[in-house]
User: Fold this.
Amino acid sequence: MNRPYVVVGGGISGLAAAHALMDKFPKSEVVLLEASHRVGGKILTDRSHGYVLEGGPDSILRRKPEAMDLSQQVGLTPLGTNPSARGAFIYYRQKFFPIPAGVQAGIPTDIKALLASRLLSWPGKFRAGFDFFLPAMTKPDQDVALGRFLRYRFGDEVVDRLAAPMLSGIYAGDIDQMSMEATFPQFKQLEREGRSVVLESRRRQRPRTPNPESLFVSFPGGLESLIEALVAYMTRVELRYQTPVDRLEPTADGVRVMIGNQQIEAQGVVLAVPAFEAGRMIQEMSPMTANVLEEITYPNLAVIGAVYAPGSIPIPDHKTGFLVPHQPGMRMTAATYVSSKWHYPGVPDGHVVRAFYGRSGEDVLKLSDNELLDLYHREIASTFPGVDGPLYQRVFRHTRAIPQYQVGHVRKMQAVLSQMRHESPQVALAGAYVEGVGIPDCVRRARQAVQELG
Ligand SMILES: Cc1cc2nc3c(=O)[nH]c(=O)nc-3n(C[C@H](O)[C@H](O)[C@H](O)COP(=O)(O)OP(=O)(O)OC[C@H]3O[C@@H](n4cnc5c(N)ncnc54)[C@H](O)[C@@H]3O)c2cc1C
Assistant:
């Protein structure tokens, strides 16, 4: 009997894995099992009122080719960001500060612009200059916390007011726990190969092109278009919704996928679910690996989307939003001026804002939707006094949203992957916790997982 290949989880990782399985095994059946009533996972676009309101991610990094390549294969045309909206503000102590020119991945490279910025105090700017004199702190084989590294080189002020909001936002993480090797490995190279991180970053800067392509892309109907196009393209993949997988059991030459009182005998399985789910599923097969996966933490997050009538909120159209350093009286971590950042075709006039809540170490989902909306309205009114109420608003709750890459993550994952290949070659792991949380990283890992299947 021809047994199918099974993918567990229908987020971008699972869909990309199903797509790759279809290509690699054209004669085999591919079945995708998804616990909920929809595929897409964290990718979710609300178009109910004619606007494009993203509930999860809003963009794909163009520089990493995998997601661009996948979207092209399923016939999508990318949409770049609005070229006149560049960079974000930092909102600190009730004031907006532009991010100083030359700051790249949280690292200042334009000293004049740093000195001119009012975001930092003079002692803070002076401390940042230590980078020119300090010896390297990193050792070739050692991972360190990103915060520890940056605090050593630039001081607390640059980290707390600039680098942390820019870098940890991507992971909703705590910069003092995040692994440098897993998140920004290039920093170690900059430190070890140059006289200072600033000078080495400057030396490596590429000359500016006159009309650069936007760094980030989406699609005219938002990111869920990628999910819809994949589903439409993968006619040979059987999608089963509301099918939560309980666990996997090894068989003599394959894997048994257990779903309530049903089971599927599979030739191979790609597990494309969050780490805590994958760990639970392989607990019997591979208890040591399962324990490592179950230890990976995921903070809860909330995204609030709000649509305002034209002229009712004074958001600028030359910036993409603002980042909020940790400070008393403001729980919002960032906000995107969606209607300035993206010119989605065919949407009605109006201003669209998305605000982000939830940091590592705080559980924002203890608040009900109404409490979250009250908090948002209070904070947005303190940021934009006189703002009118929105025409439409929605709370997106993300339970256990983003895996935290803590110090030692890369090595842990290398050990997990090698143990899985050794103990259970018919099961491969994919998902945001393995080799990167970005959508292109998820696609790359999913394709690799399919290649690893025995
Ligand atoms: C608010 C937010 C903003 C983000 N912004 C960006 C951005 O702008 N750009 C970017 O590149 N990345 C961004 N990310 C990260 C990116 O969206 C995610 O890392 C990525 O979408 C994760 O995809 P995934 O398929 O690995 O996991 P998920 O999307 O979590 O999918 C996992 C799927 O598995 C299913 N599942 C779980 N358990 C079971 C089970 N037992 N049986 C069957 N199915 C199961 C779930 O229902 C879900 O559909 C953001 C993330 C969040 C939360």
Q: What stands out?
A: The chain has 17 helices and 22 strands. The pocket of flavin-adenine dinucleotide is lined by residues 8-14, 33-36, 41-43, 56-60, 244-245, 272-274, 277, 301, 303, 398, 401-402, 431-432, 437-439, 442 (CB under 6 Å). The chain has a mean pLDDT of 94.
